[in-house]
Amino acid sequence: MPASIDSSHQSVLLRERSNASVWEQGEDLEALWSASTATHRLIAERRDGSLGIDAIVLPLDDAFETRLDAARRFWRALNGRPSCPVYGVLPQQTKIRHILNLRAHDARRAAASYRMIAEVLLSRDPILPRDWRDHHLRHKVRAILRRADRLVAGGYRDLLFYPHSRSQKSRR
Fold it and tell me: CA-CA to 138 of 20 to 30 Å: which in 26, 61, 90, 124?
């Protein structure tokens, strides 16, 4: 890295940062720095006895965007700039949909009928038994329960990697 860094860059000296704990771990230098909005954990290579960071190296892997966002938030904290939204936060509509899926799953496990699930979760008015066979919410409840089954069967793990997906389906 040193060959690609020109003389105009500013090195970050970890020991001079307030609220920073710095220690040596073998060949590396590790630091915890509590900024105003977050705590940053850094691992830096020690070169020439320096205790500073000259550059951040990001591997071009599947998590590159997440790493890039973390580096951007770290840079903003170093420069005293306000924090920004974190990359990869679930959209509110997606959170609401997952909550609905899990509530429907819980209702079915509690032996509620599909019609009762539709009345409680999706409708303000009771649904008459004679109307249920052709009711538009009947198909919606079935779709919600299929999504809930996928979540409970292990699909919830994909939420941990959002917006990246563990499944092969997303790589097609």
Answer: 90
